[in-house]
Amino acid sequence: MNVQPLLDALGLQEDAARAMADDLRTQIGELQARLREAETHLEHLTITRKTVTALADRIPAQTASPDLPEHPDYPRILAVFNEAAGPLRARDVCEALDHELLPKNIEGTRAKLKRLVKLELLTEVDTGSFTRK
Question: How far is CA 122 from the centre of its chain?
């Protein structure tokens, strides 16, 4: 009986199994490297969280101006003006606050700007153009 064809078939299967094992070893190596990177990133984030938390205790609590309305946009609007190099229009403030540029949003922002002018926190230098006092 000639066993050579059987041995050849067995050799082909061994080669295929060996190739698959090599491929899987390569994938395992790549996954281990990715896992190490993810664990390092997680460790850095953990350290950052601890640092930020520790520093937060040292930052004095920010108190809102007693005259400032309760709406959360007002402090954000003032922050936009603190960073502005010149006068801003309601549309500019909407963009800075990432509000959708719809007429209702622009008009609402304009009303807030006018209120801040009445509270003497902003000045309207030209019609519709506002700046920090």
Answer: 30
